[in-house]
Protein 1
Amino acid sequence: MTRLLLLLLFVLAAAPAQAQDLLRANAPNDWLITNATVLTVTNGVQESADILVQDGKIAAVGSNLSAPEGIATYDASGQYVMPGIVDAHSHIAISSVNEATAPVTAQVGVGDVLDPFDVALYRALAGGVTTSHVMHGSANVIGGQNETIKHRYGVITPDALRLEGAPRTIKFALGENPTRVHGEGNEVVPQTRMGVEQVIRTTFHKAQRYMAAQAAYRNGERDAPPPHSERMDVIADILRGEVLVQCHSYRADEIYMLMEVFEDFGVTNYTFHHVNEGFKVAPELAAHNAGASIFSDWWAYKFEVYYSTAYNAAILTKNGVTTSINSDSPELNRHLYHEAAKAQHYGGLSDTQALSLITINPARQLGIADRVGSIEVGKDADLAIFNRHPLSIYAIAQRTYVDGVVRFDRQNDPDDMRLRVNPERPVETAYDWSDTGKRHGSCMQGTGLHATQRGLYLK
Amino acid sequence: MRLLLTFCLTLLLTAPLDASAQKTPGRQGTFALTNARLVTVTSDTISGGTLVIRADTIAALGTNVAVPDDAEVIDCTGLTVYPGLIDSGTRLGLVEVGSLSETRDYNEIGDLTAHMDALTAVNPNSVNIPVTRVNGITTVLAEPSNGLLPGAASMIDLHGYTPDQMHRSFTGQVLNFPSTGRRGWWDDRSPEEIEKQAKKAIKKLSDVWDRAELYARIDSAAAAGDRRAPTYVPSMEALLPVVRGEQALIIKASKASDITKALEWAAARGLTDQVILSGAQEGWRVADAIAAAGVPVLVGPVLSVPTRPSDRYDKAYANPGLLAEAGVQLAIRTGGAENVRNLPYNAGFAAAYGLGKAAALKAVTIAPARIFGIADAVGSLEVGKVANLFVTNGDPFETTTQVQHLFIEGYKLPLESRHTKLYDEFLNRNPGVTE
C-alpha cells in the first residue's frame, strides 16, 4: 500500500504542470479573437480589431488578422477586450496571512502557504482578474514576503500559480495595525508612529552592519561570516533594491516619514497601499516616484481613515503619481472594473486613466509590466472580455484568458467550481454576509483580532 | 524637516475647520426645474417637462406647467430628474468610525432590547450623511442590530438638524432571526454547534413571544378595566404594537432554511401581514415560498460574495432578479454606513444580472416607499409628494453620471461633503513640494 502511495506521489510529482490542471489540462492557448473593441490601455482603443494569441502570448493586434488554419476562434463582435485585471493587494489563495509574533518578520513569506484550491481565485477570474499580488497581513511593521500569482484556477500545485520571474516583494505596515498588535497587545515597541519609524530605521541599520560584515568576510577582513540570518538576508535585499516594498499605510505623516527613511537608506522603488491620505502628500509621492495602491472609496472604518476622500485616485493621478486601485477583499476583487469606474465619478478620470488603475499601473508597481497590464504584442495573453465597456455599471464579464487559456467562460461554466470538497464536512458552510457586508477583508487574520462592521473583535 | 513641520501645521489648521464646516445650510423656496426629463417612476417619463417645488412639496409637474412668478428657475436642459433614492437597510447616522466603540450606537447590550429606538441615536451632523446624499440618496432606514430583538428601526431623510426633523414616519421593530449561517472566516463553530445554538435561540424567541403575547393580553384586559396593568417591562411594552398588528416587524434572515423557519414562525404567530424580510441573501433558494407568503423583501447588499462556496459566482448579484421573477415584492439595501452612497451601484448590478433597469430603479424608490407605507410622501415624482429628488446628467446607476442638483424636503442642498471639500483643497495643493 505504502509502495503504491509512493508510486502515485512519484507520478504526481513527475507529471508536467499541465497534467495537474483539473479544469483546462488540454485547453488551447492559441486563439483568434475577432471583431472586438480592444482597450489596449497603453495604445488607445482599436475598433473592430482582432487579437491573435499564440503559445499564450499576444502575437498580433489589428484588423483582419490572418491566423493558422484550425486555430480556435472567438467572435467578440459587440464586445470589449481589456487586459486581464491586476489586483495589487489581495489575501486570497493562502492558508495563513499574518505571522503576528514580532514587529519584524521579513523571513516568512506567503509564497510558502499558497492554496490553489481557493474558489476565490475563480470568482475573481469571473470579474476579469488574471493576476493577484497576494500579501502578508498588516500586523507587523516589516511583515512577510508576498507572492505575485496568476489565476490559473484548475492547477493543483502551488508553484504553478506563481508568476514566474516576478520581482520579490515584501509587506510593510504603518499606523494603527502594528501599534495595536505589538504596542497595545504585547507591550513591545511600536506603540506609536514614532516607534514605527524607529523599528524600520533600527532594522535597516542592523542590515547594513550585517551586509558590511558579509563584505568584510568576503574581502578577507574578517575570519568568519556573520551568523546566518534569514531575516537580515531579506532586509539586505530590500536595501539592494531586489525586494520591492509594498507598504500598508493611511496617514499623510506616516507616508511622508517612510519616504524620508527610504531616502536616507537609498531605497527607491516602492508602493504605498491603502494610502487613504496619499492625496495630502501627492506632490511628495510624485517627487519620490512612489506608487500608490488605493481603495476606490473605503473609509471611516477606523479613525486613521476618517479624513479620506473618494477623490484620492483622481488627485493622485492628476499629480503624476502611479496609482492603482486594489481590492484587499474577496468581494471587491470580483468587480475591480467597477471600482476603477468610480474614479470617473469622483474626479472625472478618462477611460484610459481609469482602466490604467487596474491594469498597467499595478503591473508597474509590481515590476511585471513587461508581462501583463496592457494589450501589446509579446505580452502574456491575459485578457478580460466584457459584453459592454467594462467601466459601465452594466458590464458583465464574458470570458477571461490567462496565458491564452480560457479560465472563465460565462457561457460554459457550471455553478459549483470547487476543485475539492471536504468529505468530513457533510454540511456545507453557508455564510451570512448581510450584516458584515463586503468588508470581510483578512489583513488582520491570525492576529486574534478581526474587523467587522460591528467593529474590531477578538477571535 | 521644514517640510514636515509645514505639513503638520497644515494638518492641524485644516482638520478642525474641516470638521466644523461640514454643511452649508440648505434653503427652501419656490423652484422651477424647466426643460427637464422627468422620470416619475410611477407613471410615464416626461420629456421637456417642468417640475415646480414649493416649500417642501412637489407643487406641479408636466409639460404644460406655468413657471410661478416667484420661482427660482433651474434650466434642466439635457438633465433628468429622479425621485430620491431610498436605502432599505443601513446604520447611517448611528456610527461615525466603525472600529471605535464610542462612536457606535446601534448595538445595545442584551438580547432583548426592543425598547431601543434607533432614531434617538441618529446624529444629524454625521459626516457620513452629506457623503451619502450627494449621490442622490435622500432617505434611508437606520436600524439597530445586536441581539435577538435589538430595537426599532427608523426611516430618515438625509437632511435636518434634529432626529425628528429627519424622521420619515416609518418605525418598525427588528428581529434578528436565529441564524444557522456563519458570520465570517473567524466563525469556526462546528455545524453541530451552530445548529445547537440556533435551536436554543429559537426556543428563546418562542418564550419571548409567548411572554409578549401574554403581556399584551394583560395590558388589554387592564385597559378594559378587567384587571390591573402588567408589571412594567420596557421591552414587552415596546413589542405591544407588533403583537397587536399595528407595527411592522423587520425579520433579518439570510440562509434559506432560516428564511423558511422565519416565515413559518411568522405564520404561526399571525404576523405574516406585518413581516418584512431583510437580508435574504439566499432568498433565491426559497423565492417561491417567500412569494407565496406575500412577504416583501429588503434584499442586499447586492455587491456581496455568494453565501456558499458551491454557489455560482454571481448569485448575490442575481438574487434580486430571481426574487422578482418569482413574484416577490422587493427593495434593495446596502447594509452599510459610510458607503451607503454605493446604493445606486448595488441597484446597477442587480439590474445587469437579471432585475432590469426599470425594476431596479423601482427597488430603490417606489417599492421601498410602498413596503414601508410612506408612498404617499416619497418614492416617485407626483404632485403633492415631498420634494425629495435629484437632477443628473445621465443614468443614476452609471458611475460617470454626476448629480447636478439635490432637494430633500424641498431644501436645495449644496453638493458638498468631506470628500468634495478635501478634493477642492488638495487637487492643487498650495504649497506643493518644497525642497
Protein 2
Amino acid sequence: MSKKFRLSRRTVLRGTGALMALPLLEQMLPRNAHGAPGTVPRRLAVFYTPNGIHMQKWTPTIEGPAWELTPTLEPLAAVKNDLLVVTGLANQPAFPDGDGHHAAATGAFLSCAKVYKTEGNNLRVGISMDQVIANHMTATRATRYGSMELGIDAGRGIGNCDSGYACPYANNIAWSGPRTPVAKETNAQAAFNRLFAGGIPGETQAQIEKRRAYGKSIIDVVRDDATALKGQLGTSDLQKLDEYFTSVRELEKQVEDVSVPSMTCASGAAPIVSEDPTAKTKAMMDLIILAFQCDLTRVATFMLANARANKVYPFLGLSGAHHTYSHHQKSQSNYKALATIDKWEVTLLQYLLERMKSVIEVNGLSLLDNSMVYFSSEIGDGDSHNHVNLPIILAGRGGGALTPGRHIVYQQDPLANLYIYLMQAMGVPNVTTFGDDGTGPLPGLV
Amino acid sequence: MAGECENAPQTPGRVTLHRLNRAEYNATVRDLLGDTTQPAKDFPIDDHGYGFDNIADVLSLSPLLMEKYSTAAERLVNDAWTRGAFNSCALDPLNPAPCAHEILSNFARRAWRRPVQQEEVDKLMTFVNLASQHADPPEVGVRLALRSVLVSPHFLFRVEKNAPPGSTEPYTLDNFELASRLSYFLWSSMPDDALFAAAEAGKLSDPAEVEAQVRRMLADPKARALVENFAGQWLFTRALGTAVPDGTLYGAFNEELRAAMRTETELFFAEFISGDHKLKDLIDAPFTYVNDQLAAYYGLPLPGSPTHKRVELTGHPERSGIFGKGSLLIVTSNPDRTSPVQRGVWVLEQLLCSAPPPPPPDVENLPPPITPDMTMKERMALHRSAPACQGCHRLMDPLGLAMENFDPIGRWRLQEVSGAPVDATGDLPDGAILAGVRDMQSYLKKDPKLTNCITEHMLTYATGRGLSEADHCAVKDVADKAEARGGRLVDYILSIVSSSHFTQRGAEEEQTP
C-alpha cells in the first residue's frame, strides 16, 4: 500500500483545504435488522492532559446551572451551555505505592485500577473503559475500528519513567488488558492514512473479493505459525503471543471490512504535518471529528502529552517546564505559568468542541449533541499529587445521556462510577462495576 | 563483602519472547531486503523499561502495530521485488514451483534466522496455487508468501525455544538462537551470512569462534547500532534532540551545535568500540571530536574544519570524558538553570547504579534565591535543610555541584547567571571533598561500583531483560572477567557473551501472582 491516500469506492468529494468530512449521511447510519437506517450513534472522545490543573483558577464557585466561567475556562464561552463541569470525583486506585504518582495515576486514568509497581516485568493495570467500549463495538461489528488512540508525543525514550513505574504506564491511557497497553498514533498523517486505508479507486467487486481472499490467507498462514509456536514456548512467552493473536484478529477484521459498503464518506485533504503542538493537536482533533462523522469509530482517546511531561512551551511566553511548574509550591509565578498552560489546553478543547458543534448530522443535531467529550488529568493539584478532586469537563449531550450547562460537585464519589455511566451510555451491556472501586453509574449527569 | 559471590548460585534468567523494536526492525529489513527507508519510523514508539527500549517484557504488540507491520510488509515486498531483490531465478509461468521454492525457502530461512522445515516451505508454496486459482500469475503468489513471512511471528519475534516441559534446568541456546542474540546485541539486526554459516556449522559453541565473530562484528559499520541504541540510551544522548534550553537566557545554543554535540558524543563512544581504551576511561579520556563551531563554543583551539576532527585535550582537561560533553550537560539541566540534582542522579543511576529513592511526597522544589547573588550551592544547601531530604541530597548534590562550572548549555563558566562566582565544591558523606569535575572523575574511577554498574547496563541491553538483586553476582563476575581481560569495551562484550546469562535461558519459574 502506498503511503499516499487513495480514495476507494467512496464518493469522491474533496474538502476545501482543512480536513472536512461530509455530514453523516443516512446511508451510513447503522442498519437495523431490516436494513433500515437506525439512529445516529453516540460517540465518546477522551482528552487527557498531564500534570494536573491549577484548580483555584479552574473551579467555578457556584454549583448548578448558574455557574460562571472561571479564568481558565473562559475560552469555552461559546460552548458554555454544552459543558458539565464536574468537581469532587476521586480516583483512589490512582494512588501509587510510595512515589510515582504520575505513571500510576495515568495507568489508572481510564482503568480506575491500581497499577502494579514494576520497571518492566509483570506489568499490570485494569482494562480501560474506552477499551471496554471498543470491545463492545468490535463484538457487535458496529464500526470498522473498535477505537482510536491518538496522542502528540511519542516519548523521550531514555532513563526511567516515574519512580519505579515502567514507561508504558506513563505513555498509555488505553489498556486492552491488564498487561497490554494500546499504542497510540502520534503522526496525524499516518492516522489519517489508516482511517481511510484499504481501498483502491475503480476496483471491481471481484477485485475487492480477491484482495480480501489474499489478505485473509496471509492471516490464516501466520495464525497457523503462531499456533504451532505455542507448543514450544513457556507461559510468559504465551502472554506475548496472545498479543499477537489479538492483533491478528483485529487485522482480520480490517481485511474483511475492506468492502463494507457503508464506508461512504469523503475524507477531504490529509492533515498537515507539523511539529507545533497546537497545530498537531488540532490535526488530531480533526481526525477524531472525521472518524466520528464517518462512523469509522465511536470511541477515541487523545493524550496531549505523556505522564509527567516536562515540556517547555515557549510560544506561551514560558521558559520553565510543565512538570516543574506543576510543583508550584504556592509560588505566584508558578501558579501564573500553570494557569497559562491550563488555558492553552482548554483552548484546544474549545477547538474540538466548537468544531463538533458546527457539524450538523442527519438527525438535525450537532455532532457535539450526539457525542460525549471527557476532558481531565491524572492529577488535580500537581504539587500535592492528589487524585481526589480531579478537574473534569464533560461536554456534549451524548444524544440525551448528558444534561450540560451545569457545574456539579460530588463528594469524593469514585471516578469509576462516572465511567460506568459513560460505558452504559455507550451501550455496553451488563456493566455495573468497574475498576477497583466502581459500584454503579454516577447519578446526576442527566 | 568479599567472597559473597563465591558460592552463590547463578541462574541465567529468562528472556521473554522478544518482539523486534523499531531500530531492530529497520536494521533487519535493511539487511534482509536492502531497504533503507526505515519503515518503522512511522510505527508507534516502543516503550522502554530499565533504561532501554529493547526490553522484551515491555515490548508489546498492539493491533495498531500489527496493521503497520502488515502495511509495511506489502510495501517492502513490492519495492524489493521491483528492485530485483528476488531475481536469483526466473519464475517459469508453466512450472513456477522450483524457482518459487528457491526464493521462498531462502528468504524464510534468512528472515526467520534459522533453518526452515520442509512443511513450512510447503505452506508458503500454497500461495502460488492460491494466485493461480484467482487467475493471477505465480509472481503474485510468491509475493503474497513473502509478505506472510514478514508478518509471521517467526520474523516479528526473536523466538527462543522453551526448556523441556517440567525441566528446571537452564536451557542452552542453540547456535541459531545464539547467533541472533549476538547480532541483535552488536548490530540491532539479523545475523549476516558469515554468522549464519558459523551457526549452521555448529561453531558458536566454541568460545574462540564466538570471540572471532564478536571482533569481526565490532569492526563492521553495523556496530554503530551500539552507539545509537546502547550508548544513546545509557548516556542519554537520545534526549538531546528534545532538550529545549531557554532561548532568552541561553540563546547561544542552536541547532548546529545540537547536531555537533550529538556527533561528538557518538564519535567519542565509537572510539571505545574500535580503539584500545579501557572502558572506564569514558570518565576522563583526554580526547574528543569537534568541528570549528563546537571547538569555539567549548573554548578549544579550532581544528580548522567544518566536520569533526579528533583532538587531544591537552590544556583542557575539563572537556575530558563524558562530563565534558555538551550533550550530557544539556540533557541533565533544566531549560533555565543547571540542575545539580539531575546531574547527580545521572551519575548515581547511570554510572554507580546507586539511584537514590525518589523524593518524599510534598517535597519543596529548589527555592528562589534569597539574595540575587546566591550561588546554586547555597540554594541547594537551603533546600536540603529539611531532614527528610538530607539523606539522599547529601549523595546527589556534591556530584552534581562538581559540574557547576558547566552551564545549562554545556559552556564552561566561572560565574552563574546572577553574577555569583561558581562554587563547584561538594562534600560527600564519606568525607571526600570534590572540588570540580576533575575531582569527581577521579573519585568515580576509584569507585568499585563503576565497572559493575557499566556491566549491569550493558548486560540489560544485551539480554533485553531487566536485572534484579538475583543477578548481582553474575554482574560482578562478568565485570571482573572483563577487567581481567583488559577492561576494554570489547572485553566487556566478550565477557557478557560468554556468560551463562547470555548463552542460556532459564527454565520457567512459578509465576508470581
Protein 3
Amino acid sequence: MTTRTTIRTLATSLTLTAALALTACGSDSEAGGDGAAADGETVSITDAQGRTVDVPVNPEVVVATDWSVIRTLSDLGIEVDAVPASNATLPEDMAQYDGGDIPTVGTLQEPDYEAINELEPDLIIIGSRSGNPEILAEMEKISPTVIDLSSRFEEPADQLPTIEERVVQLGSIFEKEAEAQELMDDLTAQVEEVNAQAAESGETALFVQVSGGTASAYGPGSRFGIVYDAFGYADTGAPVDEEGSHGQEISQEFFTEYNPGVLLVLDRAAAIGSDEAPALDVLNNDLVNTTDAASNDKIQLVDGFAWYIAGAAPSSIQQMIDDVKATL
Amino acid sequence: MTTTTRPAPAPSRGGVRAVHLWIGVAVLAVGGYLSLGIGAATSVGIGDLFPPTQSEWHILATSRIPRLMAVLMAGASLSVAGLIMQRITANRFVSPSTSGTVEAAVLGILIATMFFNSTSLVVKMLIAIITAILGTMIFLQMLQRIQHREGIVVALVGLMYGGVLAAITTFVAYQRDMVQYLDIWTTGSFSGILEGRYEPLYTVLVVGVIGYLFADRFTVIGMGESFATNLGLNYKRLLYIGLIVVSVMAAVVVVVVGAIPFLGLIVPNVVTLLMGDNVKKVLPVTALAGAGFVLACDVAGRMITYPYEIPVATIAGVIGGVVFIWLILRSAKGAAV
C-alpha cells in the first residue's frame, strides 16, 4: 500500500505541475472562450517525424486518420470531424463514430484526400499506419497544420512514456493537458500494480495472434512486448528474433515446448471484423490443452481494438490492463 | 545374349523402371522419418521414434504424423494435377497455378466464407471445387480460341486470366473487409495442421486413383481432338474428367493448406524431362517427386528459423521461381518443350 500511496502522491504532484505549466502557457495570451482558433493562440508540438509545428489551440475542423488519436481525443471528450472507415465494430465509448453521422475519409492505409480537402480542416492528425512522410506531404497540401502523432518507440521501456507524451500533446491542443496527464498517471499507477502482481505470480506468458488457423508468437521487444515489459510477465524462454516487431508463425507443438502459464490470445480475424474460425477454437486442441495455461484456465482472449488497432489511447491501455488482470 | 530382344531405352529420355519408383519410395521414407523427428517440441527427436513413449506418441499422433501425411498428399496431388493438366492441354507451361484454377478456388473459399459463414472445411471445399472446375473450364474454352497454342503464350494467357480472377477476388474481399484472409489462403502453410484438421485432404487419394486409371487416355487426348476421336475416344468427356480431377486436387489443397506456388508446374516438367512423356509411367514418379519436394520445403521451413516456421509457400516460391526461369530460358533456346 505504501508504494501505491507514493505513486498517487507523485501522480497528483505531477498533475499539479502540468496544470500549472498549462496555466502559465495559457496566461500569455488571453483565453478566448469557444472556437479559440481564431485568436491565433498556438501550442508548439514536436511530432513523430521530428517536426516542431505550431498548432492552433482548439482548432475547429479536425480530421484524424488514426484510431489511437481518435480514441485519445474521445477519452478527453473531444469529437473529431472525420474518421477512417472502420473494419471492426468500434468499442462502446466510440459509438458516435459507428453510425455514419460523422463522415469517413478513406481507410487507415489510404486516406481519401479529396474528401478531406472538402472539409477544409484546420488540423489534420495522422499516425500509425498513415503516419509516414508521403501521406504527411499530401496532407500538407490540404491543411496548414498537419502533425504525425504516431507512438513509435525504439526500446520496449519507451512504449508507455511515448504514449504518455502523445496523449498529453493531444490534450494540450484542446486545453486539456492536465486531464490527459491525470489519465496517464492513473494508468501508469495501475500498470505498476499489475506489474508487481504478475512478477510475483512467477508465471510465464505468451502472446499469440491467431489468424485463419495459423498462430504467431510475439515475444519481448515485439509490438506486444508490453506484456513482458510493462505488465511484468516473464517470457517463456523461446528464442526471440532480433527484429522482433512482427510475430513469428508457430506450430501448435510450440505451446507444449515452451509451456506458457498464461496465454494471451489476439483474434486478428475478430479485430478486423470477421467471425471466421474463432481463435479459441484453433487453440482448443490436444497440444495446447496440455499446457499450464490450459490447466490453470488462463487462456485469455484480448480485446482486438485495444491491442491491435488503437493501442496508444488511454481507454485502450485501460482495456489492456483489464485483459491482463483477468489472468492474475 | 538376350539384350538384342529388348529395345534399348532412349538414352536422352531415360524412361521409368520399377527401380526408380523404389528409389523414390526409399528416399521419401527416409525424408519422412527425419521429418517426424523435427518439430518445436524437442521432447520428440529423431532418436525417439522406435519405440515412442506414451507422451512422445501423443505429439507424433496429434501433430507430426498428420503433418507428414498432409505434406505428402499436398505435394503429390498438386504435382499430379500439373502433370495431367500439361498433358490434356499439350502444353508444358500449364498448371493449376497458371490456368486460374488456384485463383478460382480462392474465390470459392471467399464466397463460402461470405455467404455460408461456416467454419466447416467440407462446405468450403465443395464450393472451392465447384469454382475451380468452372474457372478451369473457362480457361480451356479460352485456350481453344487462341491461335498460338504452343509454348509460353498459353502460360501467359493463363497467368493473366488468373490475375483477373485474383483481382475480382481482391475487390470483393476489399468490399467486405476480408483482404487479410486472402494472404492466408494464398500462402500455403502446414503449421496449423493437426489431427482432425486435415482429413479432407484424403479426397485427393481417391481422385488420384481416378487420374491414374485414365492416365493413358490423357496422353492420347493431348495429341489433339481429331487424333483422339480417330482412336475412338470421347475427347470431350475425357477432357472433363481430367478437368475435374485437376480442379478437385487443387481446390482441396488450397482449402486445407493454401496455395503452393510453382509446384504443379516445375515438378512434372523436371520429371518428364528425365523420364519421358508417358503419363501412366511418370504419374507415380511425379507424385513421389512432388511429395518429396514439398517435404523438403516444409522441413527447411521448420529449421531455418527454428523453433518458429517459414510457410512452405515461401520456400517453394523461392526455389520454384528459379526452376521456372530455368525452364523458360531452356525453352527459349529451342529445346523441345
